[in-house]
Write a structure and sequence with these properties.
single chain, 126 residues, mainly alpha, two-stranded parallel ribbon, 4 helices, globular
Length: 126
């Protein structure tokens, strides 16, 4: 998932290092892969293995937290992220780089792939 505080900091450092070493043209940045089939399939397989034979009532998917201002800063419309109750229900232009929306997307996909009804899992941020 994309996070302004970590992704942009890392990217600036990587670009500076590549420039110093004369490797700018060789630096390739991979965009967030939260929607990639390979990632989602691997994640679902890991969950299936971990949960096999385990009885539970509810699955809590916990992601790292970010300050709300970091999430809102990427909403150039200034009218979507955390302004609407359903702002993370789908990835749209206003939230395509939103860490929170990407986490919810992964959670929904994981729930779908594991055949978990929406009331059997929830999302939290630490």
């Amino acid at each position: 998932q994309y996070a302004l505080s970590s992704t942009e900091t890392w990217l600036a450092d990587a670009r500076a290092a590549a420039k110093r070493l004369g490797l700018e043209r060789r630096l390739k940045v991979i965009p967030p892969f939260y929607r990639r089939e390979e990632y989602l399939s691997a994640l679902a397989r890991n969950f299936e293995r971990s949960l096999k034979g385990v009885e539970f009532d509810h699955l809590l998917l916990s992601f790292h937290g970010l300050p709300e201002r970091h999430v809102q800063k990427l909403d150039l419309s200034e009218s979507h992220c955390l302004k609407k109750s359903n702002c993370c229900d789908a990835i749209v232009t206003e939230n395509k780089r939103c860490y929170r929306a990407q986490c919810y997307y992964v959670a929904r996909e994981l729930g779908r792939r594991l055949n978990f009804p929406a009331d059997r899992y929830s999302v939290s941020f630490q």
